[in-house]
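User: Continuing from earlier, I have the next pair ready.

Assistant: Great, send them over.

User: Here they are, in order.

Assistant: Folding the first of the pair now:
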Amino acid sequence: MVFSISSHSTLRTQYKQPSNIQSDFQQQINMHILKNSSIVVTPEQCTAQEFIQKKIELLTDEVEPFFAVDLEDVCNKHIRWITSMPRVAPHYAVKCNDDTNVIKLLAHLGACFDCASKGEIKKVMDLGVSADRIIYANPCKQSSYVRYAKEVGVDTMTFDNEQELMKIKQIYPNAKLVLRLVTDDSNAVCRFSMKFGADMNTARRLLEKAQEIDMEITGVSFHCGSGQMTSKAFVDAIQNARVIMNYGQKLGFNMKLLDIGGGFPGNSGTEEYFGEIAVAVNRALDEHFPTEENVRIIAEPGRYYVASAYSLATNVIASREMVDAESGETKYMYYINDGVYGSFNCVLYDHYVPEPCFLPQNESNEKFTSSIWGPTCDGLDCIHTSIQIPKLNIEDWVLWKNMGAYTISAAVQFNGLPFGKPIYFMSKQFWDQIKEAFETPARKARNDNHFIRLNSTDCSNEIDDDELPWIPEDLSEEALVTIQ
């Protein structure tokens, strides 16, 4: 289902908070929002910080890290994408964040998917997504995964070398191949070109080899690196793609697919930069791939969709006061209940520098040199080696915004310690428009409390009647879905 912009304009929120929301929100939500896998419907739109503040107030002795996930933010990102680059069909990069609720919502909105493994393909298709909405965008694939893609009908996949081409020829001769080109990703946060992509001369040879062995090449792809910091990389890559597609067409291939990859910014505050990239991409596409050619253009945004939607709440579990032997300065070490093996693995693997935020009661103009550490016994579990922050106490809460990209998708429970689990929230107005995304044919009859009860095959966290989140008395439709 693709949203109509005119009929769903209410989803394009401006993130302005009415003055009465916080008081109404705090009065009408109760402790049952603590259920980890619940989607909580609030009377009005609220900020992640307001939501987190209320949940913290309701906590008892069991204190674990958690994410506040604003699903409205994901939807607003989708609307921004299809209005900013209407020619480019987004294929969400599942590896960035494989949260089932995010996948369900994006599928409902009409997005397609970039999968990199059998597991990702299965997860997406198990949620009802058809094979023609998936591109298997991993240039180096395990043979058994190629066989699985063949079994389920995912026929569009990338490659960048002759060995991969011959492997696919042997296993899946009817596959529709997309040749991945190398790019200049020197300005990206995470570079991929040292691992993937064929240069221009190699790309020509691969096209010739594909012609020789009678394999179908349907298009060209590239990736300018995750967190790309310049629009010029996209423009240059689109121009190179045009050259290779022209050569492929001369060889007799029906080159009708261009995949411009990912790398689009998604943190809050990057809207203007995304707009600049969109303008540059649109201009380059119009120049090199005019609409009359009917080339299908797709992209693989990941962090763009989810980075700003996730805010992480962590608790200070221990602290140390130390005096610098040389300067005499008092410094502090803080240990929080999530770290680089959990949600903060983005520090190691995504080169991300998370910025802490503090609840009003912890804000102070006086700052101290501090370090912030994760909860494990590993000395590498450090989030910040030196940062100026207010003095904190044990059991204080620290918030971290823009934590949706490459966080929970790579987290592990090292030392048996849990990492942040998501709790989803949205306004009733938004829920009324997207609730179909979370319905399932296997659901049982609704009870008198107006919520959807899923059976044990649908949900790993069944809830009892007395565990419901806030539901307003005048809510005539279901207000909660519990998702596996």
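And the other member of the pair:
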Amino acid sequence: MKKHIVVLAIIALLFSMFQVPAVAAKPQSDTIHSGSPFDNKIIKRFDSKRAMQHISYLSEDIGPRVTGTDQEKEAARYIQQQMERYGYDVSTQEFDIANRMQGQLVTSMDDNELAIRIATGSSSTTEEGVSGAIYHAGLGEPGDFSEEVVGNIALIQRGGLSFWEKVEHATEAGAAGVIIYDNADGLVPPTPSLGDNTASIPVVAITQADGEALLEEIEGSEVTATIKISEITNQKSQNVIAVKKPKGKPSDNHDIVYVTAHYDSVPYAPGANDNASGTSVVLELARIMKGYPTDKEVRFVFFGAEEIGLVGSRYYVSQLSDNELARSTANFNLDMVGTNWEEATAMFVNVVDGAPNLVWQSANDAAERLGNDSLILFERGASDHVAFYEAGIDAANFIRREPETAALEPWYHTPFDTIDKISQDRIQEAGELIGSAIYDFVRKETPRGKKGQGVNKRVGNYLLNEEPVRNR
């Protein structure tokens, strides 16, 4: 009997050791990742800490990267050096940009330089600029001026009259320059338009807050200002291009996929989200994918001069040969993917005509595999994917927005677009999601989309990524 009991006990012990539990003991994580080995090649290697280092260098070490400036060129060199470090052969593509006006407004209040926008139609100044006491001229009506404005700087509130009428009245009264301050709260100054008119004096605009601060100062004492405006000519910008060739395919017979981002920013804006964020994710994806075999050629292209009218991307696409265009399959364009603005919970996939295409398909499939429900298909141009669409290439722009109104974060195009407004978690999410879509697309043969939908035509009057010019 005892032997029988011992045998039964041993059998029970062995059974308990090898029994499969009813509930798996696998630990759960906050992020649902795909079991696909192809996705995991991206997910397990994408390092948002590296991406944040790129954002830090571009937005903090360099700062505003205005088209055509030394800072934009420094950013291009940084991108080139990083890509060469990853093992790519890198080329730069230089192109001309339109002449532009640059300016400065300094007041005697602790030699304070104010953020400005130069009016279209403003005159330039000498190198020394135009200086004078600030004279408050109300809304710029003829009766708002006295002899005290002669040879001085007229401070005029926006509203009531057109910008040109205000400037015309100030000029007739003898003012040496005009500062227009906004009549509504905003983080950046308005951009005044003088219509088809050209002023004989310099005209700039400032924010409501800066205008009201000047008003307080001139009530108690004289405050002087110096306006300097000069035209910058014969400037150039550049695209940075790195190519990953497919293995085992003839060099002239494979599809081409473009992974792109712009690296320039607007004046005064460090451009952490717009668009060091997209640039950083593309850099990190390029690092990861360098050693992976692909069936398609992948071109990582970093555009300059996006903020002045998508100039870099339009130039790049215009230089593609007919053979290259025929083999071009898709453009994944990343722009402003890292904001920590709480309301920006959705990743918009902007398509120029609003129709699903291969890029949307790939991203949506990746989102389903990764359990990510943040994607929204949206009809919009306004970024570098437009040039590819117009050439008949399936293209989409990835950008974080508020889902109900499609609003961007409040510090868009302002000096407050800084690295403290970046979410490292959202950078990681963008890298994993978009990277998985791209890698799945290029690692195997993907059915071609319907070509020629946008060849040689412009679609609509899409708002460019800069503040609209207003005449009132």
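Worth noting for the second one:
The domain at 37-99+235-442 is CATH 3.40.630.10 (Aminopeptidase). Residues 1-32, 448-470 have pLDDT under 50 and may be disordered.
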